[in-house]
């Protein structure tokens, strides 16, 4: 049994608890990007960056609280794409960005943008297969994760309790914000 | 000439303890408190309690990858990904790439090579073994009989429990004997409902998990600098409050306060040096993990506490004319009977009807369901039993990663507590089997020239049969509570090692022909060497083992000092 097999077995173990993008991040052997990619040039161009920002903001828009862009989500997605995923997953992501740009996402009206994403989500759900990952799934998970772990996102949207000091069962009021504990990352 | 004598003296101690983890910490504390000058040799780097818990106080947004594991660290720490898939704690798990091992059959060897060993990353579930656990082998004719019984350990359990500090509740159950407790942690509303329903409908007790966290520190806890648990559940990053039991927070400070403790880090114990004439150990030979320098240290008594695989490897590597197959290995049992607990099997459910119930605080710990199979009048077509850890919690914002939808409503929804869910995971007992083993590779070495460990072990038909009951009984209990969408799982990729309770490879027994250690964890044929970690376990029980290792260590240390004083060692 070699390391690659060992790791894929562990990934299988994790199947129930982690989402597909996270699992795929574990399989590094198929990757061909250089080990020193942290110091290398970015894999994204300006248009791709704009698509990421637009989609992230559509997933978590600015309302009476900050949105994905205010919370720095696009930069987080770029870092994760660089450090967290194999070349093949990066390619899925880049293709997804290209398709959306091709469909005119950046010049579409807000309603048209929402329609485009709805189609994207429906397709992703219809074609979801174990062991594969879609562009939509990747950007959705990264956006949610990036937002609800950002300082702006946590402080505006959740009740952050870094040191609760006690544990007790309580009653909550309708609409009350959920607690966030530091252990959730 | 004089210089040499002085150097030799500087390297000579009353006792040497190999490893600073859960059991090494206990050996150090007991031996120093009983007046011995003790050297602890730790192969890993030094971690200073509190000072070196670099991520413990970090907020989520301070992590570059917000807690997610990168592709590079996933490869380097592949064995522990199951437990450590977090950015803030991965470095507390050993790097498998630097410390390789071979899997003839799949085995995950999850380690912590640093001060405190796995005491920094353990789950802290702490249970006594029961009377039957020490008699099952004899009754069933499996393995060998334990040379001790539950009663031999009772005073030692009580002794270590007090110092450790275990939160929990006395229940008066034979299957799960009570410890000395600090106040238990609270159950959530659905958990209380679950406990009540299962008691009424199935007559099975469910208890609050007994965990080594200070819920009400006692003077002897605060004396070593420990404080009450703050319910942050960031424990694997290290606890700046010293609220959970670790060598770093508890036993090593106690040992240090005697002024008789020396710890040397980066010291990989390679082998035991044997005194050929006296049939005793003289000391150990050590490689510095950074400089590769080889040194020797001497003592009257040696305690091996390098973790089951680590300690047994040292014995295997200590070859001499008297012990050509490894120190104390006349029985050929060294490395055999490798046991673990099997997990990654259980049941889950959704819970409806507790929408206004929530909890404040992050509880480090869960419920515990004690063994009920093959217990009392229950008889199965497999041997031994299993218990469950698990609990109910509300889904948080992270559910948004997989839940459909986006936009303002979606965002709002993720700021609200999600649905309640419950999950139960079984921990099953694995039987001793001489063909489940590990050995040292004859040709593959690590970067220190030490032979790599080869694992060759797997679950048995008995284990597989037990897994069916773990799934079905879990589902039955969740249904008894009226929970929805009950599903079961048995991960086909589950294998040994992932139970994180490896033990048994230098078993205790009455007969030197069939066992390596005697009833005081002393090598039968080399009396001044004690092995008091999981190596000595003769069978595996189904509850977490570390409390029993601690009790055995304290007992062996007390015996060793008495024997030293009587000049028998
Ligand atoms: C994620 C996780 C969760 C766990 N949860 C629980 C739980 O809830 N309850 C429970 O009872 N148990 C639990 N365990 C198991 C528990 O951690 C072990 O049983 C316990 O740590 C064993 O103690 P030890 O002293 O034998 O080994 P360790 O604590 O691992 O210490 C061994 C030490 O020896 C050092 N060492 C190794 N080889 C050498 C050498 N050649 N020379 C010098 N030093 C050496 C190591 O660096 C290490 O510091 C868990 C384990 C893991 C990994
Ligand atoms: S939950 Fe308790 S033991 Fe764990 S890190 Fe927080 S204070 Fe320490």
TrEMBL record, chain A:
Pfam families: Gluconate_2-dh3. This is Gluconate 2-dehydrogenase subunit 3 family protein. It comes from Spirosoma pollinicola.
From TrEMBL, chain B:
Residues 432-552 form the Glucose-methanol-choline oxidoreductase C-terminal domain. Its cofactor is FAD. Residues 230-341 form the Glucose-methanol-choline oxidoreductase N-terminal domain. It comes from the Bacteria. SUPFAM superfamilies: FAD-linked reductases, C-terminal domain (SSF54373), FAD/NAD(P)-binding domain (SSF51905). It holds the Pfam family GMC_oxred_C. GO terms for molecular function: flavin adenine dinucleotide binding; oxidoreductase activity, acting on CH-OH group of donors. Transmembrane segments: none annotated. Keywords: FAD, Flavoprotein, Oxidoreductase. InterPro entries: FAD/NAD-bd_sf, GMC_OxRdtase_N, GMC_OxRtase_C, P2Ox-like. Belongs to the GMC oxidoreductase family. This is GMC family oxidoreductase. It comes from Spirosoma pollinicola.
């Amino acid at each position: 049994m070699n390391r690659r097999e060992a790791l894929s077995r562990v990934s299988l173990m994790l199947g129930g608890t982690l989402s597909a993008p996270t699992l795929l991040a574990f399989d590094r052997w198929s990757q061909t990007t250089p080990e020193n990619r942290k110091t290398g040039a970015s894999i994204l161009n300006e248009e791709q960056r704009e698509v990421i920002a637009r989609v992230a903001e559509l997933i978590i828009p600015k309302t009476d609280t900050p949105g994905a862009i205010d919370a720095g989500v696009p930069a987080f997605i770029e870092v994760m794409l660089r450090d967290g995923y194999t070349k093949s997953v990066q390619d899925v992501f880049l293709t997804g960005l290209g398709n959306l740009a091709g469909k005119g996402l950046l010049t579409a009206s807000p309603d048209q943008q929402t329609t485009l994403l709805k189609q994207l989500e429906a397709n992703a759900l219809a074609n979801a297969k174990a062991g594969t990952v879609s562009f939509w799934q990747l950007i959705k998970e990264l956006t949610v994760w990036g937002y609800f772990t950002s300082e702006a996102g946590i402080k505006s949207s959740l009740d952050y309790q870094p040191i609760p000091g006690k544990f007790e069962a309580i009653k909550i009021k309708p609409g009350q914000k959920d607690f966030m504990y530091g252990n959730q990352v | 000439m004089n210089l040499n004598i002085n150097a030799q003296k500087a390297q000579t101690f009353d006792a040497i303890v190999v490893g600073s983890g859960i059991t090494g910490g206990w050996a150090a504390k007991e031996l120093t408190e009983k007046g011995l000058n003790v050297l602890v040799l730790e192969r890993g780097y030094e971690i200073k309690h509190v000072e070196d818990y670099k991520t413990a106080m970090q907020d989520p947004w301070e992590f570059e990858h917000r807690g997610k594991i990168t592709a590079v660290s996933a490869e380097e720490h592949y064995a522990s990904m199951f437990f450590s898939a977090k950015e803030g704690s991965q470095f507390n798990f050993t790097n498998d790439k630097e410390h390789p091992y071979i899997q003839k059959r799949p085995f995950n060897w999850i380690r912590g090579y640093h001060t405190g060993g796995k005491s920094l990353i353990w789950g802290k579930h702490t249970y006594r073994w029961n009377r039957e656990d020490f008699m099952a082998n004899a009754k069933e004719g499996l393995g060998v009989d334990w040379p001790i019984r539950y009663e031999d350990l009772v005073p030692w359990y009580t002794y270590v429990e007090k110092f450790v500090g275990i939160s929990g509740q006395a229940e008066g159950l034979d299957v799960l004997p009570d410890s000395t407790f600090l106040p238990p942690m609270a159950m959530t509303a659905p958990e209380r409902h679950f406990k009540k329903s299962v008691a009424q409908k199935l007559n099975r007790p469910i208890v609050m998990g007994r965990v080594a966290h200070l819920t009400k520190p006692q003077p002897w806890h605060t004396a070593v600098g420990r404080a009450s648990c703050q319910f942050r559940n960031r424990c694997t990053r290290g606890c700046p409050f010293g609220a959970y039991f670790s060598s770093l927070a508890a036993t090593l400070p106690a040992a240090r306060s005697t002024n008789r403790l020396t710890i040397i880090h980066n010291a990989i114990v390679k082998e035991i040096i044997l005194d050929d004439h006296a049939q005793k150990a003289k000391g150990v030979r050590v490689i510095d993990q950074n400089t590769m320098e080889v040194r020797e240290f001497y003592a009257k008594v040696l305690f091996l506490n390098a973790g089951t695989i680590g300690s047994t490897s040292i014995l295997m590597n200590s070859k001499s004319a008297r012990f050509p197959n490894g120190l104390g290995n006349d029985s050929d049992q060294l490395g055999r009977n490798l046991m673990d607990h099997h997990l990654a099997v259980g049941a889950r459910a959704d819970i409806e009807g507790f929408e206004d119930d929530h909890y404040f605080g992050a509880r480090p710990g869960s419920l515990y369901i004690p063994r009920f199979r093959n217990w009392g009048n229950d008889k199965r077509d497999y041997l031994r039993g299993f218990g469950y850890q698990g609990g109910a919690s509300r889904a948080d914002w992270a559910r948004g990663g997989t839940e459909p939808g986006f936009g303002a409503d979606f965002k709002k929804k993720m700021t609200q507590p999600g649905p309640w869910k419950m999950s139960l995971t079984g921990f099953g007992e694995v039987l001793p089997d001489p063909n489940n083993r590990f050995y040292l590779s004859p040709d593959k070495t690590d970067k220190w020239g030490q032979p790599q460990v080869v694992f060759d072990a797997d679950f048995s038909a008995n284990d597989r049969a037990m897994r069916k009951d773990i799934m079905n009984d879990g589902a039955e209990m969740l249904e008894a509570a009226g929970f929805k969408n009950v599903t079961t799982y048995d991960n086909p990729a589950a294998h040994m090692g992932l139970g994180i309770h490896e033990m048994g490879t230098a078993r205790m027994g009455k007969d030197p022909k069939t066992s390596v250690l005697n009833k005081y964890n002393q090598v039968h044929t080399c009396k001044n060497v004690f092995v008091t970690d999981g190596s000595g376990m003769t069978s595996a029980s189904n509850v977490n083992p570390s409390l029993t290792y601690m009790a055995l260590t304290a007992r062996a240390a007390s015996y060793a000092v008495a024997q030293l004083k009587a000049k028998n060692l």
